[in-house]
């Protein structure tokens, strides 16, 4: 299968051509093409194996990325000057190819990106919770994977992939694939994951969760006890798993 990369800032990965969104891909994400018809292409995402449809014009030939976006979001500017016109916004986790670099900017096909918002592809953080905190206040978006909108599993995946750790795209698969089950009654610690049916949250500290949720419609900190009771009261059931990475 031919490999291409995403050429738009954020792309919906659809269940069928022009159908509902299942997940999203970011600029520079690489995919393998399975099928193309009537301006639509069915792809498999390299980052997690997720399969879906996107518009064919949202893909371009693959080119090795040299840097990735480490700020929550950034802009590409027309010139190496932050007062020049901004051309496109990119989310955390987007992958870019540097043409030239200065002390302040990385020149790319999109324009000039502030160097302070980038890191070489080989540079990886080691604390996924700290990464997830970059998304605080991001609006909730079902199936979202970017700073412009994200859901619970998207938040977990963004943090783990940034740290170089593999992670599926959906919370059900994450519950099965990630970490080891913690014995019931063991106190939760920072970096643990709590799962419910259809939901996942980071443990960010003592009795505190960090998660994207539709009640707050944002990425928020929430006391663990409060979240457990709220989710139960709204009819979504108890915690189904406590996992430790």
From TrEMBL:
One matching Pfam family is NLPC_P60
Q: Does the keyword Protease apply?
A: yes
Annotated GO molecular function terms are:
hydrolase activity
- Which key words are in the record? Hydrolase, Protease, Thiol protease
Domain of life assignment: Bacteria
**Which intervals hold domain NlpC/P60?**
122-245
Matches recorded under InterPro entries: NLP_P60_dom (IPR000064), Papain-like_cys_pep_sf (IPR038765), PG_Endopeptidase_C40 (IPR051794), SH3_16 (IPR041382)
What is stated as this protein's family in its record?
A: Belongs to the peptidase C40 family.
Listed name of the protein: NLP/P60 hydrolase
